[in-house]
Amino acid sequence: MKFKFVFLFNLIFISNFFLNVQAFENKKNEIGFYFGSKIYEERDTKEQFVMSQDGYMIGLISASADYNQGSYFGWITKLAAGEVDYTSNRTGTMTGIPDYQFETTGYLGIPFEGSNYRITSFGGLGFRYLLNASGLRLSSTGHAGYDRESRYLYVPLGINIESSPVNNSYWEFRAEYLHFISGQQTSYLSQVSSNYSDFTNDQDKGSGIKLTYKYHFDSSFGIEGYSDYWDIADSKPDASGNFYEPRNSTSEAGIRIFWSY
Prior knowledge:
Layout: H1 2-19, E1 27-43, E2 49-68, E3 71-88, E4 92-113, E5 117-133, E6 147-163, E7 170-187, E8 199-203, E9 206-216, E10 221-232, E11 247-260
């Protein structure tokens, strides 16, 4: 009798599950905020540690996705600000450095729908801007800081997997390989001394990875964990041939909370 009751309960539960499976959302618009950690490191040509900056970032994010007749178009834009602490064996430490970041990416892809999942492969074009504002500050050893600007242009190639909604709830997993096209690093050394010039270095080698896991609690609210990583090779020398940007890596990870509309 007990076995029959358990069997009947499971049968009702499974039937109810499939009866409540809903169609995939074909138009999505989201806005939210996020908080995460950030670690930036530089190494010289011998892979020896040069400097690091670690801290936090708080930002806003907007995203859209449009699935129409076997195609996918999407857009993600992020704007963030935070603070990082500087550490170097050569020039000491510095705390509370303002850090600002802007990133926007457009995507085109092809979706494939199964009975309870949708897989979308995609490519696109992205732009990332960073301002690290340590100008007019002194380190613990008396060394002057200077502002640094980074600009990246890249192509994301990836896959997005989402489950079909059940009672308006579903999950998504997204993985992107970031193919670095080009970049520029501008160092405002004139802030250190009027005897110095500002330098701009071109970058042409590097790559990145983005991973996200998103859960939609219902049709209007969700949470997402994310991890971003960049590895950029040594830059080309500047016009004078005396100054280059060393190899660097950036790791970010955190939580996003978003609302759908």
